[in-house]
Amino acid sequence: TQSIDLTRKKCNFSSLFKISALSLPLPPKKLIGNMEREFIAERQKGLQAYLDVITTHHILSNCELVKKFLDPNSYSVNYTEIALQHVSMFFRSEPKWEVVEPLKDIGWRIRKKYFLMKIKNQPKERLVLSWADLGPDKYLSDRDLQYAVKLLSSCSHPYIYKITFATANESSALVIRPFSEKGTLKDLIYKAKPKDPFLKKYCNPKKIQGLELQQIKTYGRQILEVLKFLHEKGFPYGHLHSANVMLDGDTCKLLDLENSLLGLPSFYRSYFSQFRKINTLEGVDVHCFGHLLYEMTYGRPPDTIPVESFPPAPSVFVVSVLESILTCEALKNGMPAVSRLLQMPLFSDVLLTNSEKPQFKIPTKLKEALKISKECIEKRLTEEQKLIHQHRRLTRAQSHHGSEEEKKKRKILARKKSKRSANESGEEHSAKYSNSNNSAGSGASSPLTSPSSPTPPSTAGASSIPPAPPLPPAAPAPSTEVPTSRPDASRGALLSSIQNFQKGTLKKTQTCDYSAPRIS
């Protein structure tokens, strides 16, 4: 139905593909005969294949235009206007900030908007304001959420990007950070400009080239160190990807720590929600690190997960780390711990020169609330994975049941069953017929051509009558026949009279007909 609606609804995907620079041609149109049944069926298949390509593309499937077309009721709200309302309300209480320009579509989230900011008394300094709605994994109370978001500005770590200001209310949150002209790690890999739209930057890169081995080692070690720090603090993250890693010189710094507090879905959720062994936020972080390492190595994301074979890499140590995270065996057994990855040869010999001491004090009460929130997030992930697993089993069963090979097997089995039932019914019919003949001939009558035989003794009371003693072996067989009983003799006479009946021996009779009317 969606493929038919695509031709009926005025949904313009041309702007989407102009921005993303992807070439996805629609099936050909037809001016004459476009209502023929064969053409409609063929075009429907082409449109369905067209939609399948869009929905399986990781970046396009998260695009607002695609989501609005597939589910207009859930995405009918204009989040840009809502974001502007919240930002304008914020400026009323904080007049020192000023909006320079909106940064349109620089992120992949529909419910998250960005604005380029400046401080009035420091006009040359540029900052980025991000506004985000609350997501489905928001389990903190409003009070704990507001306190935790404000606490983020006090976090100090050499590999966490500094937050200038952060606040939250019962429906959304607002965070201000310094703007980096260099951009993110993803901008470095794809050689993109930070202010360009997300689709234009990353959907179809012109040149695919990975980073150098030393960059892979250094950036990977820095990211693992900050993940280890957050895990030890009991702070849930789960939002690692290359666009959430800011570059500051030769140092990687993590972005968007507030996402897990707001309950926003992860960029790679559609991947790790398919594997039931990735059921903790620590495991989610490691799995996302595997995606990021693959992207740093090969300059593009993996085509499919799990990865069956890896292209040539700058080092065998890179491949060994990727194999421990992204292969089918790794996904079945579970993700390795961050501490184990740090001990692998790819990262163990990297020297970290930054001497800044990490500081992030979380009160005990908030730490307990974060722990409960993390457990709720993991529980919802486990339930979602269970539903996906059940759906995939059902889909496999239906596709197997509907396959041509299975249909042929069912036809053969049906034929065998029908033949077997026919044979069994024939045997049952013959058995009934023979039993009826046996019951009609045993003890009651004998064949016409055979002499009459004595009636067998009754079995009733057989246990009380002792059996007759056997004849002595030397005694000769009796030469006289057993005399027939009276009923057998009369029956034989009746049969002989019927056989000897002759029609000519009948006497003629005279009939007096009294049926005619009498007239007196």
TrEMBL record:
UniProt feature, compositional bias: Pro residues: 466-476
Transmembrane segments: none
Bias (Basic residues) ranges: 390-399, 408-420
Superkingdom of origin: Eukaryota
GO CC terms, sorted: early endosome; late endosome; plasma membrane
GO biological process: early endosome to late endosome transport; endosome to lysosome transport; negative regulation of monoatomic ion transport; protein targeting to lysosome
Compositional bias segments (type: Polar residues): 496-513
GO molecular function, one term: ATP binding
Residue span of region Disordered: 390-520
Keyword Cytoplasm recorded: yes
Pfam family membership, one: PX
Protein name per Swiss-Prot or TrEMBL: PX domain containing serine/threonine kinase like
Organism: Corvus moneduloides (New Caledonian crow)
Lineage: Eukaryota, Metazoa, Chordata, Craniata, Vertebrata
Gene: PXK
